[in-house]
Amino acid sequence: MKNKTLTYLGLSLLCCFCSCTSVDLCPEEGHPHITDMRVRLNWGDTDKDEIPAEMHIIASRIINTWRTRGIVDTSIDPATAGNITQQESSSDNPQTEEGDGSSFYLRGGEYNIFVINDQCTDAAAPADGTEPSPLPIVSISNLDNYIHDNRVSVKDLYLQISNMGDKKPDIVAGNDLPDFNPDEEYLQELKSPIYYAVQKDIDIRTGGPTLIDFDMQRISQRINIILNIRTEGDIKKEDLLPPIIELSGACGHFNISEACLDTTRLYRMVHQAQPYEFTQTGENTYRCVVHFHTLGVIPSAAKGHLNGPGILQVALQVSANRLDASGAPVLDQDGKPVKNSRYIYGAINPYDELTAAQLIEVRDGKTYLRYSKDDVNIEITSPLVIKADQIVSDDTGMGWQPNDPTNPDDDIIIEI
User: Fold this and answer.
1) How far apart are the first and last CA of the chain?
2) Candidate from 153-157, 172-176, 202-206, 375-379 with smallest mean pLDDT
3) What is the pTM of this model?
């Protein structure tokens, strides 16, 4: 009896196995194992004028790796319509081809999802009349390789600010500034903030639409460099032009996965102050405030250095009366003084100011950006003193240092 029972049980199990193999497994055409995902980007109190028109979204399934990316249109309300377009994935997904161009499909599973923006600038129109391609200022390096090659790790994804290589910005190349940091290339100037958000280990369920919230964080810092200038002698406001400001030690690469900075290569930023940024505050005193959007600045290694990271350089065009051999002003045919204009150069190491600003922090051997939705003000406490057409050297050696003020051959002479 016992043997008969085991025989019946074995036959029953065999029937079950056979019946299971004959049943069709939920076909994807009729019941797709995907979800149409939308995202809601929460900007908090961010000024509407600073919200980028588009954001990159990158989704990576952790187990059974599958990767995809798209573009988020920030003007579309995800409650009413799909707001992600231009999907590109690591393998073909027929559902994306059947969509209306405003759908972003994910397969089921556990994901890491990043949202971040880039920046471009308009290129000059080609001579053949074709549409110019935008030039990247901020881009995501290694993104194509990451999407299509599973051997590329998410840790290889970097947000990078474009550098100028061997070239110099026009405002520098044309003014022969002394080069305190010849090994550091110039970065393209950021025009607006960079925003970032991440959701890790998100469980994506299929069979219906999915809406995910992202709290957007401004990761670029807006640094206000504040200079105080004092003149001695008969220099008037009209004798000074807004200065050129250069700051070294700028970071150009941000690791998207680990949210840390790559400090193995540092760069320079430069800005030509505008008239509204250069104001007179007293009879012989002036104030200059310039703004940089940056991914962080590394201070100098020591207070006494005048090259390397964290060095602030100024080029200022100053006009002064031309003098004859006797020291008297040269007059033109209308009896007005003839003036010469030349650039004067100075540098300072704002070690204390940059250190106090705490733009970065180091943890476990990695350098991280300190996020701040507010501007970071770096006011140079030592005033830049100009006498006649020269910068007065600081006796302590820690303030402004001119670039060989006794040798005018180092400067550009411009007759006015």
Assistant:
1) 119
2) 172-176
3) 0.79
